[in-house]
Amino acid sequence: MSILTFRNVSLRYPPGAGRSAAREKRVLEGIDLQVASDELVTIIGRSGSGKTSLLNLAAGFIAPTAGAITVDGAPVQGPAADRAVVFQDDALYPWLDARDNIAFPLKLKGLSIAARRARADALLERVGLAGAGDRRIWELSGGMRQRVGIARALAAEPRFLLLDEPLGALDALTRTRMQDFLLRIKAESRAGALLITHSIEEALLLGTRILVLSPNPGRLTAEIEAGFSAEILAGASIAAVKETPLFKRMHAGLTGLIHSGAEEELAA
Ligand SMILES: Nc1ncnc2c1ncn2[C@@H]1O[C@H](COP(=O)(O)OP(=O)(O)OP(=O)(O)O)[C@@H](O)[C@H]1O
Predict the structure, then answer these.
(1) What's the pTM?
(2) Which of 52, 196, 220 to mutate to test the pocket of ligand 1 (most atoms within 8 A of CB)?
(3) Distance CA 46, CA 13 (A)
(4) Which family does it belong to (predicted)?
(5) What pLDDT, on a 0 to 100 scale, did the predictor assign at position 99?
(6) Is residue 72 left, alpha or beta, with left meaning phi > 0 and alpha meaning psi from -120 to 50?
(7) From ligand 1's centre to the CA of 241, what distance in Å?
(8) Which whole number is the average pLDDT over 26-51?
(9) What ipTM score was computed for the predicted complex, to two decimals?
């Protein structure tokens, strides 16, 4: 069992960086968070609340201004193979075919060409793309590309999957299929997962825990446990789960939590 921990983490962007150039930007404040490898934790928050910044900290792309981020007690000091990131735009290498995209991280691990190809083929099969290994990225649909991205993330057998709106660019039908897929592949991989999303529905469907990030500065203001992902893994359809009174009640409750304070902010 691995644990990713944020302890009292704050993040400020210095003046001159990004959009608000004149003043220092307080983005995240006092974030305490733990993700264990048997969990899929979703973080939901309004636009600009700091979700991507939080994920970038977990990935080690940026460092916190204060506080500590650790994996099994060891400080995160930059990107590493124990934490794989999947972005909304799949960020695949267009000059490589699907198989070589998946095999790419294995090259860094020093595996032979034959071993890399064998592992990539096994992963292609696992994500339902057996036979598509020779296809170029532009020959794949959006959902297929995201599967390749997820397979590539899994290739190095990370301890944590960090998912930044990975399904955000997909049409509704494909998104539902991919939600189901993501749950299953996460359960099989035994990696912990941190998923950020704008979608309240997706946060509830996929998360074993849902954390609400409130903006200015970003703080975790609510935590909810949900069992819908276990129902889906046990065979319930996503459409059926969404129709249950409990799902609807929790959806309404979460909507209230996320939007409380938004009116005051607009008026201010
Ligand atoms: N490199 C940067 N320099 C300065 N400010 C930044 C930088 N990156 C993000 N910000 C600011 O930090 C705040 C949080 O941004 P972030 O992208 O983490 O939020 P988000 O919740 O992921 O937003 P969205 O849902 O719109 O993607 C925003 O006000 C943004 O303008």
Answers:
(1) 0.90
(2) 52
(3) 19
(4) Belongs to the ABC transporter superfamily.
(5) 93
(6) left
(7) 33
(8) 95
(9) 0.96
